Structure formats: structure tokens, C-alpha cells
Amino acid sequence: LGGIVKEPPMHIVHIAVEMAPIAKVGGLGDVVTSLSRAVQDLNHNVNIIFPKYDCLNLSHVKDLHYQRSYSWGGTEVKVWFGKVESLSVYFLEPQNGIVWKGCVYGCNNDAERFGFFCHAALEFLHQGGLQPDIIHCHDWSSAPVAWLFKDHYMHYGLSKTRIVFTIHNLEFGANYIAKAMQYADKATTVSHTYAKEVAGNPAVAPNLHKFHGILNGIDLDIWDPYNDKFLPIPYTSENVVEGKQAAKEALQQRLGLKKSDLPVVGIISRLTHQKGIHLIKHAIWRTLERNGQVVLLGSAPDPRIQNDFVNLANQLHSTHGDRARLVLTYDEPLSHLIYAGADFILVPSIFEPCGLTQLTAMRYGSIPVVRKTGGLYDTVFDVDHDKARAEAQGLEPNGFNFDGADSGGVDYALNRALSAWYDGRDWFHSLCKRVMEQDWSWNRPALEYMELYHAAKKY
Ligand code: ADP
């Protein structure tokens, strides 16, 4: 085994405000947990510093215990420690109640709350004498770490630490993102195509020399149809047809849909402009016209949009109750059953930095139907049009996609997908098997992050 040089372990600290499954709002929460686990599996030391929200899902925290406290910002900050998905997490609980608002986002002044948390996190490292190699911060919400570190903490004995900043979504808090881009040693975003799409944005453009696209992965232990307590029978690509059939029946049963052999289109999404709401609605009607079933799991932070979908749900449940079900809440267990029980997962986003739902869909043998943007473009290769582009990635085509942001676009992809299901079931099943066998894990992206962390240390 000569020639294999063992890398010395690096110490990486994430400072973040979302983390699956204890406080997940969207993909950022998945990424913090699953990237950390992948890097830890490569034998590096990873810690997460996280707010001790009052709304944490504590049932997923093991061995939670109080460690100590320190004073900062005119208050006492209590430090708790616990394990989440085998990751070591420090929970900070400022006694001024700044993270006791019953929610992650949308309560009082988020920028002020998270700014306070970022500052408290650096103070925790400083007072504890911790000197990580890398501090990794995420989006606008922990962007202040970048400049607070470079303006202050770097000079308080944390001089060997480097800052890596990841943009998960440039839509929110671009001013903070611009500033963190300027201060960070290295910056990333979550796919190559999104990196190109935002390269001209004034928040990013001045710092392209340190900006890289690294695709997100999914955690194969958390998303595993062979070991998933929410599914009726475990399955792999070997028994995908049987496994998905059982899941489809369980899904139909649970949602009160007619138990019949019809194509099921699933949608699992935050309901916001980004996700292509008008295309989602159109696709629901188109699927019903083509005699399919449709299941939507989603919730809208904007009450007007939520209300709009409640009305649509009432209408559909009365006119097409046996074939359409809209579940307008956040429901992790149900999401697993939909990923497994659907034939197709539709993701018609207007923009999508990476997108995790299409990757999870494939892990469960569901075929993605997506709009060609950002990470969706990088991960879904159309069976009719993208053979060469897939081959360049060492892959075979794995789904259906479309351009444009109008109903004609989504129809083009959805019609071909449904026809494939109706007209060639054997071929369709071989496609399900194929997508399950593609590797959308963190295996490769985690190595790319390690390379980036090493490059940051030399910076
Ligand atoms: P974004 O971060 O923009 O919301 P991603 O595709 O990156 O989009 O991540 C979305 C994540 O949230 C996926 O893991 C998806 O399964 C999950 N998700 C979205 N909406 C719901 C919901 N209503 N119930 C359960 N899980 C959801």
C-alpha cells in the first residue's frame, strides 16, 4: 500500500442557522448536515455551531447536555452540546431570548438575531481557545461571520483559521452575500450552472477568482429506500418495481386516492415564485387531463399563496378527489412515501441553485421532470436530447426536461414522460432502475470541498 499518504485531519466548524432534521426549512438544512457527515466520514473533525432555538426538534438530538456559559453582548450565553446524526453540535442559547421566537425565519428582525448569533459563535470559539482550520458559513444568515472574523477575531489569536462561504440562494440578502464574498478566503455555490448564472451579479462578479461551483449531494443513509421506516417494503434497484408498487399503493391508501395502476406525478416543494408556481398548477391540470394521479406536498411562507393553494385543493378534491391530493403542510415522513410511491417528481423551478428533490427522487427510482436551470440542468439529462451531455459526465440519460417558463414548456416534458409510462412500461422500469444506480451522493462533492479547504489554507 505504499504511496498512499494519509491526510492529516482538518478541523472544520460550520456556523449555520438551519440543520436537518432538527431545524430544517429547505435545502440549506440538508446540506449543512450531509456535507458535514461526508467530510467527517473522510476522517476530519467537524463541528457545528447552532442556535438553541426553542423550536428545535430535540427528539433528534442525542445526549444533549449543558456545558458552560460565557458572557457576551450584555447577556449570558449558555452552551449546550449534543449529537445530531452523529455530528457534534454546540448549541448557543443567549439568555436575552434572541433565538426563542418559535421559528427559524420570519420572527422579529432576522438579520439582527442572526447577526447576534454569528458574533456569539465567534466569541465562543475565541473564549474556548478553539482554532479551527476552516470556518464555513452559509448564505446571508451566517454571512456576518466572514467580516466579523476578518475585522476582529482573526487578530485575537485565530490567525490560522480561514473562511469559506457558500451561497445556497442568492435571492435572499444579496447585500450580506456581497460583503461575505468580499471577505471570505474561498466561496462556493451549489452547482456549476448556477455559478455561471450568477457570475454577472454585482454581489458575485468582483470575486470570481475565489468562487467555485460544487454540486450538492444527498446523504445515502438518510435517504435510503432499503432502510426507510416510512416505506412499506425495503427496496434497491434490484426490486425497484415491486418496492415502488407497494409504496404507490401505500401512498394512494394514505391520501385516499383511487388504488389503480395510473402514473403518479409528485411535487415536493416550498411554494414560492422560485419554484414555478404557475407551472406547478398547469402540470397538475395536464396530469389530470392525461388520466394520471397527482400528489403535491408543499407549503407557502406567503399566506396569499398558501390561501390560493388551499382554494385549489378544495376545488380539486371535489372534482378529482380520486386522482389529486394537495397536502399543504411540511411533512417529512410523507415526503419519503411520495419520493418512493411516485413515478415522476416534477421540479419546474424558475431558478434552482442546486435542487435536492430531483436527486432524492432518483435515489428512490422516481424519474425527474425538470426545468433546465441551475443544478437541475447539471443533474437531469433528457432521455431524448441529452445523451451526449450525459455521456460527458459518464452517465446515461435519466429524466425529462424543458426550456422556457410557460405552459408549453412544461407540457413538452410532462407529455413525453407520461407517454413513456403508458406506452413502454418495460422501458420505463429500466429507466427507474438506472436512475437508482446513479451516484448523487456526497462522495465526489466532499472531496471537492476538501480540495477547496486545503486551497483556502494556502491562501
Ligand atoms: P429549497 O432549499 O429551495 O427549498 P431544495 O430542493 O434544495 O429546495 O430542498 C428542499 C428540501 O426540502 C428537500 O429535502 C425536500 O424534500 C424538502 N421539502 C420541501 N417541501 C417540503 C414539505 N412540504 N414537506 C417535507 N419536505 C419538504
UniProtKB/TrEMBL annotation:
Q: Which UniProt keywords apply?
A: Glycosyltransferase, Starch biosynthesis, Transferase, Transit peptide
What is the phylogenetic placement of the source species in the record? Eukaryota, Viridiplantae, Streptophyta, Embryophyta, Tracheophyta
Similarity remark? Belongs to the glycosyltransferase 1 family. Bacterial/plant glycogen synthase subfamily.
Recorded protein name is: starch synthase
Keyword field contains Cytoplasm: no
Of the parent protein, the shown chain spans 732 to 1190 of 1190
Q: Where does the signal sequence lie? A: none
Task: Please verify whether the record's keywords include Transit peptide.
Answer: yes
